[in-house]
Amino acid sequence: MAGPATSLTPDANVPTTATTLTSWTRALKKALDKAGCDSNALLREAGMDLKALDDPNARYPLAQTRKLWRLAVQATGDSALGLKVASEVSQTTFHALGYTVLASTTLKEAFERIVRYYRLATDAAAPRLVRQGGEYHFFMGLPERGELPADEAVDAFASLFVRSCRALAGRDFALLRIELRRPEPADRLSFERILRAPLVFNAAENKLVFERDSFERPLEGANPELARHNDAIAVRYLARFDRDNIVARVQAALIERLPQGEPAQEDIAKALHLSLRSLQRKLAEEHTSYKEQLDATRRELALSYLRGSQHRLSEITYLLGFADTSSFSRAFRRWTGVPPSRYRATP
Description:
17 helices, Arc Repressor Mutant, subunit A, 8 strands, alpha+beta
């Protein structure tokens, strides 16, 4: 019997005018070129501006990317094209997201980051991570309204997640199963060969299912400091991408300034070009406050630092802007119920 479910949900709903980072289309373009297709002609037919491919921050509307996927499958006749596009993705394809995922201390932490920063790659889906007893279920998510992503785009993301797991946990890492809403593809053998997991088609939702112990096991290549730096880059990108998201903007400003000491609320307001009253009003509209965001940001960073062994407690105290180690320890005990030294020692 499954135990109580715990869930990590995204901050925002999928918009009706969803977009995808152009670098994802660049990976599809490479796969089309390898298949002998005229990728430029297909992009133009889909209504895409080719110049945007050279801008690492540019984005294409979902309607265009969906049309391109349809044209690409027609041109190649390959029902497993999405799986092959994933092999064209590099560490830099999705901005800082690729780096912060690879620096994570566990697969669980990696997928928590994917949920948190997924909008960096595309806001055409709203993923969530749920623990059910001895399993973790990663739901890839779909918009409640508007156009759905192409089945092949979902295939590509599923393949990319599997590849990322194997890069982090070893090439023999296997999932418990993969469930996809799409009909069974003509080339099922390629899906079985590439994904190497039990497959369910015509499923209710798109999801990956992991065994809990392996999902929570520490990873050898973890680098919490590198993850923290790329978390900050990802947060800053999302703050620019969604300028109305005052919570993301405050978090980005806090991450940048905490190593210099606890920033005053007035300083954060000034950094965001707001009056103090405007900042307080905007946060209140999101049912939060500056104090709550300062506390939440410190807590998340502290957990990330303590999962690794690179930083002493005195260094973490400094990085989080606390005046002394005892102040940090009191705050950490309030967040978790245990002192930071015991948390770090817990396997």
